[in-house]
Amino acid sequence: MPGTSNHGWGLALDLGGGIQDYGTAQYEWMRANAPAFGFDNPEWARAGGSKNEPWHWEYGDLS
Questions:
Q1: What are the pLDDT digits (tens) for 3-33?
Q2: How far is CA 44 from the centre of its chain?
Q3: pTM, whole model, 2 decimals?
Q4: What Rg do the C-alpha atoms of the chain give, in angstroms?
Q5: Which residues contact 17 (CB under 8 A, 6 or more apart)?
Q6: What ranges do the domains of the chain cover?
Q7: Cβ proximity of 20 and 55 under 8 Å
Q8: Half-sphere exposure (CA, 13 Å, Cβ side) for 58?
Q9: What is the full DSSP assignment across 1-63?
């Protein structure tokens, strides 16, 4: 339903520019630095997770 997802609430975003692929310099930089700003690629979205989505980043603890 529109407006009910963490994307709709502004708590998640999908990124490109190299971040959308595991192992790139951009993705690795985000993994190393984004948590300092409150963002994370949740475990389920990481390589080997239940739903591989390297482009998906969430703000705060949404687990």
A1: 788 998 889 999 999 999 999 999 999 999 9
A2: 10
A3: 0.87
A4: 11
A5: 26
A6: 12-59
A7: yes
A8: 14
A9: -TT-STTTTTSEEE--TTTTSTTSHHHHHHHHHGGGGTEE--GGGSTTSSS--TTEEEES---
